Protein 1
Amino acid sequence: MNDAIVRAGNSQLQHGAYNDRIYLMKLAEDDYPGILDDLEKLALDQGYGKIVAKIPDWARSGFLQMGYQQEAAVPGLFNGVADGYFVSKFLSDSRAREKDPEGAAAVIHTASVRCREREDEVKMPERSFHCRICKDTDVSQMAQVYQTVFETYPFPVHDPEYIAKTMLHNFVYLGIWHDEKLVALSAIEIDLQSANGEMTDFATLPAYRGRGLSHFLLYQAEQVVGGKDIRTVYTIARATSFGMNITFAKRGYIYTGRLVNNTNISGSFESMNVWYKPL
């Protein structure tokens, strides 16, 4: 069962047993600092192992004073001017203990080397593929791709109704078709108020991996946000995934930190790397 996305005053958070955490996704200024006590109470009542918050600079000191630690920083996350931070509070020792720091470091090292292969323009790998923005009539195919790629996922992308709902709000999905078959997907979560976009939900069917489809989707996503007055884009990528971290490095994204044991993907907690790029 997926975690719930709820309002807390004028702020937005996700919480539940699946990810065993609270994720403060959007902090409203009029909810601060009272929301600090609310988050603590909810986490203790539910027995969660972690609270992670995406916050602007003006709230950083207050969260750190309450025992949070900074895991990543994104310059200009808010309107290209104010910096943003991912801060976390671990409520169990095991949740704070990274499983494979050497493996995660090897991924970042490899990505930093491969970033020299950056291309200003990325072309579709093969003529039989075509890419476009997804429509509401595509949601069943989209859900099938996500079901095939991810046994479980932190958001209910397996559900066509969820995908359709996000399309009506602040998500743009891009798909690549091979003839009439949808074979790869990505999404952009756009925050016009803060002038940022999260590049997320990349998925490629196993038979079509190794052809650079995610790289092309990321390039196309940047073209989409380029026309929407977005100042900063960022992503939260699996720390042990060579492919996705290299993809972002090659597009000029900058590594800025790791969210330890942050996300339940396919049944286990994974650490996530944060990358950003000013536009």
Protein 2
Amino acid sequence: MKGGFVLYNGKFFRADEKLFSGDELFRLEAGIKVWFRTEDNEILFHGQNYAYLCAATRAINLILPEDFDLGGARLRRDVSRLLNKNKFYLAGRVVAYLFPGVNGTDVLLTAEEIPRGFFPMNENGLLIDIFNEGRKSDTVMNPYETGSRFLWMIAAAKAQSLNRQNMILKNHAGFCCEGIGTSFGYIHENVLYIPSEKSEGYRVVLTEMVREAARQAGFLAAEKDEISTSDLEQAEEVFLIDNALGIQWVLGIGNRRYYSTKTFEIVKKLQLMAQNKKAFSNAKG
């Protein structure tokens, strides 16, 4: 039987086992949450993902566990143990929670099995919309999940009410900056545009590799500070970037419909990069 286990501070527990009492749940909210993809029991783009995890902990002044070395050996080892315990030998989505513990920083790892294929593109395009019922505040937590957590919850409820699979969120100035748990990109006149760091959006580690894959596919790639809803309406193609699922092509935003031909060309290059172990450490944005 597959699945059913989590790894908490190096020890296995049943996924349905109660690990925290009611007055301890606040500790989870005081930490960070990151996720990434594994294939064949290995973290894809491990170095970049580990650097992002470390940066996220520093942003909230959370001290890394003592045995979290510079190379991320413990994370790699614990992820491998978790995948083997759950018998997720092909592809998985691993979520890492780091949060204040009684004696230092606690680490909780969960995993779920996902379709293999080194970031395969979704077969059916996503129907999404623009979220206009709240904006993201400008804080030092902008690049991380903690900076968007509660706005994502509100936007997810709105998406469900509209029968949409995601939403594009805006920053405090009213420009598009991220999706729910994702970043995004759009193609216009053979240029791939993605939100810049100044856009104040959630930063997905995989965006760096998507940008390089676009260049390899023959497109120009540019970061943009201010992306308007009009930019998305005029785009030829739009896609979301999920750190575990990869590029997810968008069929429509509201009543606007898009193609996916050029997006698929980028996906193919991204898949080649992910399969090439040397590219794990050599991908440059």
Protein 3
Amino acid sequence: MKTRTVERTRLVPHTIDGRTEMVLDRYTVDVPRPPRDWDRIVLTGVTAAAASIGVASIVWSTASIGDLLARSVPEPAAYAAAAVFDLVWLSCMALEWLARYDQARAALPRRAGYVALAVAMAAVGAHGWISGEIAIGFIGAAVSGLAKAMWTVVLRHHAKPLDPLTQQWVDKQRAEAGGRLAMVAVRRELTRAEQAVTAEHAALSGASPDADPERPESRADRPDDEETPAVTGPMTIADAVRTALSSGITDPDAVLRYVRTVADANAKEASVERYIRSLRTPA
């Protein structure tokens, strides 16, 4: 049996001058070497071969279609456009791979990939026909077809089909996660809309955009902004207290502020409270 050496660590007591501490000790052990996973090695090799075939297909198609298009447009533009043909169906294969656990979603990129492949093969065949090399045109078109077939087989081997019940469970989980993700964008959009409404209202009313008319601050936090009755002329302290109470101002501090505003700036708190008690006491 083959083995391999593995380094491990452990805590061991170590004493110096009568003081013991737990220290880290490194040691090696021989453990059985697992057998080679030939299935994984073969699959990795096949995937690498498919990747190489895909690159070769892109190079061949680009050279062939680029030479065809260069008859009418400058070469840089012709070869840049030629690279699109095989890149499209390869991109569709990548999307098909991403949707390997959802056959319904994978159907569209699969069909689109076949359409793009047919267009690429027709372009390569047209280049051979125009160049007078029909056989080379057919063989060159087969390069893209073989690359597509190779990638299809590899992806089918990697894909793990799900039974109907498991597929429904996966779809529900994906829909729930997608709903939460969608709500992030929706909330962001609603926030922008609310900010726009607030800014528009501020522009029309001349108020500060930070002041939300729908959310006024508590009057207890803004005593200076409390509504006060209109001043009709000079008042005595008693008249001012009577006017404040009749206007619905019941807080003694608010009444005192009103009296000092319209009647006597030096009005005493005790005098105002006495007038309040006398006016509240029924005769």
